[in-house]
Amino acid sequence: MTEPNPLPVKAETEHPMTKYVYEPELALTICAEIGNGITCKAACEKAGIPTFAFQLWRARYPELAKIYSEARVTSGHGFFDKIIEIAEDVASGPNGIDPRRAGVAISGFEYVAGRLVPQEYGDKASKVPAVAVQIITTLGVKGANVVEEEGVYTIEVKNERVIEDGKVEAVKGAKKKRKSK
């Protein structure tokens, strides 16, 4: 004689993800909303899908992950623009904006912008501008033509050096830095 199963038998149900098939147009709409500064949760609610479905799409489809990342960067720039707008409103005089509340809002937007676009708005953002570097090596070829551009630093790698009495000796990796004209 077999004993009855003490656990209730679950009826066959549909997995929650099966009803959220990847729709590229819907995913792009959500990314556009995120790029406009709306949270992912709010954008997904507006589109009528749960956030977990969108996050799974993002994990499964690299092209969506790239578009999502670009949308987040765009929203970071938007938050920085909001900082400027708030500061201008406060600076324009008494127009109903409490400077203390504006300061709190600016701090929040600075934090978010710094997280979304750290290379531009982060605490450790580079204060030194990037400089183009051109590496030219002639490797002993006589008559080699070196083209220089304005504002480009050139590093020439020569394969020889002058030693005693004007004699020339081959050297690897000798470097000379100079600014182009």
Would you give an account of this structure?
The protein has about 180 residues and is an alpha+beta fold. The chain folds into 2 domains: about 15-120, Arc Repressor Mutant, subunit A; about 135-180, no CATH class. It contains 6 helices and 3 strands. It has helices at about 25-35, 40-45, 50-60, 60-90, 100-115, 120, and strands spanning about 135, 155-160, 170-180. It has a 3-stranded mixed sheet, with no helix packed on it. α4 runs antiparallel to α5. It is flat and about 80 Å long. It starts with about 25 loop residues before the first helix and ends with a strand.
Secondary-structure-derived class: alpha+beta
Terminal residue distance: 98 Å
State the assembly state of the protein chains: single chain
Q: Helix count?
A: 6
Low-confidence stretches: 5-13
Shape: flat
Largest sheet: 3 strands, mixed
CATH architecture field of the largest domain: Orthogonal Bundle
Please state how the strands of the largest beta sheet are arranged side by side: 1-2-3
| Helix content, binned percent | 40-55%
What is the H-and-E element order?
HHHHHHEEE
CATH class value of the largest domain: Mainly Alpha
**CATH topology type of the largest domain:** Arc Repressor Mutant, subunit A
Number of discrete domains: 2
Number of strands: 3
Task: Provide a concise account of the structure shown.
By secondary structure, the chain is of the alpha+beta class. It has six helices and three strands, in the order H-H-H-H-H-H-E-E-E. Helix content is 45%, strand content 15%.
Name the descriptors.
181 residues; alpha+beta; Arc Repressor Mutant, subunit A; 2 domains; three-stranded mixed beta sheet
